[in-house]
Amino acid sequence: MAILWTGVAVAGVAAVLLAIRSFRPSPLPAPAPWTDPLPPAAPPPDMAIYRLPTGTYQNKAFLAYRGGAFSETRRFAATAVLVRHPAGDLLIDAGFGENVAAHIATMPSYRRSPHQVGATVYQQLSATSYDLARLRGVIITHAHWDHVSGLDRLPVPIWMNAGESRYVDRAKDAVVFRDVSRDREIHRYSFDGPAYLGFPRSHDVHGDGSVVIVEAGGHTDGSVVVFVTLPDDRRFAFIGDLTWQMEGVTLRAERPGLLRMLADVRPADVRTSLLRIIALADRVHLVPAHDVGAFDAIPEWQFTPAGT
User: For labelling, which of 17, 132, 135, 176 has a CA lying 20 to 30 Å from the CA of 301?
Assistant: First the structure.
C-alpha cells in the first residue's frame, strides 16, 4: 500500500510540474508563409465593415498565452463586426448583451472575470436608426457566452453549422447560447465549397468571395474563421478563439497546456488551425476575437441616417 501511495504522490507531483511548465514560453514551429495567390474575390464597391465594441473583461496575460506575464492584466474584447453588403448585412459575433451579468454568473466561479459593459450591438444599431431588416443574421465564430450574449435582443437568424449544433446540444459552456437562442431561427449552413487559404472546406456566403467561412473546429466542435475581403483589396480573418491574444500569432504562442485542456474540445485541431492562420500573417489582417488592439484597423460604427 505504501508503494501505491508513493506512486500516486509522484504522479501528482509530475502532473503539477507539467502544468507549470506549460505556462513557459515555447513557440510553435514557424509554418511556411502562404505564397500562393489569394483566392479571387469581387466585393461590391459599397461593401464595408465596422466594429461595435460592447465591453471588455479582464484576464491575466499568463493565462492567455504561453509566456505571458504573471503580473500583467489584459482587457479581453467583446466586439461584434458588422459587414455591410448590398445582398444583406451580417454580424460576426454579438458581444455582450443586456443580461451579461446574469450570463457571467452561469460560469464557474474561477471564470467570472471583472468586466466593463458598454452599449450592446442592438443599442448601437438602434441609436443610429439602422434598419434591422437589412441584417441577414449573425455568424457566430462559436457559441461561448462572450460571443453570443448580445443575441438576446437581436431578432435575426443565427448562422450555425452542423458541428456547432452538436456542440450546443451537449456542452455546459453553451448554456448561455441555449438561453438566448430559445425560439430563435437558426440558419444552418454547410461547408459546401473548396479549400480556402489552407483550410480544407469553405462556405462562400454571397457567392462573390467577399465573405467566406471556413471550418476550424477544435475550440468547439464547429468553431469557424470568417474571411472578409473589401473593395480596396484589404483582407481580414476573424479567427475567433484560435488564440485569445495577438501573441498567439506574433510569438506563435498557443494557450498554456492547462488552459488548452480546459478551453478546447480538440486542442490538436486548434494548433493545426492556428498554424494555418500564422502562415497568412503577411497577407491577411488577423483579428483574434479578444485582442482589443486587433480591431483598431476597423472603423467604429457611427452610422448617420440619410437626410440628417
Answer: 176
